[in-house]
Amino acid sequence: MAKKIPLTRDDFIIMQLREIREDIRDLRGEIKDIRGEIKDVRNEIKDVRKELNNRIDKLENEMRSTSRHSQIMAGSVIAIALAVLYFVFTH
């Protein structure tokens, strides 16, 4: 027959402390995993931000180019119109 060993209050406290220690270890592991995931998301955001900045720079360059082209076209049209008017009034 097995002998019964009574558990004391201290034994229950030690059991609870061991469970708490295991839970803390588990939580540390989960926190480490979450930190890794957050780091990955942060890196993805940085990459997206870089891509957006590159696209914005390209768009700005295109807008400048289009603006210059429009100014050249307007200048050319005005020059041609003045040339035609000059030709009409001088001949």
Characteristic key phrases:
91 residues; 1 helix; 0% strand; mainly alpha
In short:
The protein has 91 residues and is mainly alpha-helical.
Q: Roughly what is the average pLDDT, rounded to an integer?
A: 93
Oligomer: single chain
H/E element sequence: H
End-to-end separation in angstroms reads: 134 Å
Treating each run of at least 4 consecutive H or I residues as one helix, how many helices? 1
Query: What portion of residues belong to β-strands?
Result: under 5%
Please outline the major beta sheet. Answer: none
Instruction: Characterize the overall form.
Output: rod-shaped
Q: Structural class of the helices, strands and pairings?
A: mainly alpha
**Total E-strand runs:** 0
Please state the CA-atom Rg, rounded to the nearest Å.
Answer: 39 Å
Helix share bin: over 70%
Unreliable segments of 5+ consecutive residues: none
Describe the 3D structure:
The chain is mainly alpha-helical. The chain has 1 helix and no strands. The model has no long low-confidence stretch (mean pLDDT 93).
Question: Secondary structure elements and their pairing?
Answer:
Elements: H1 9-90
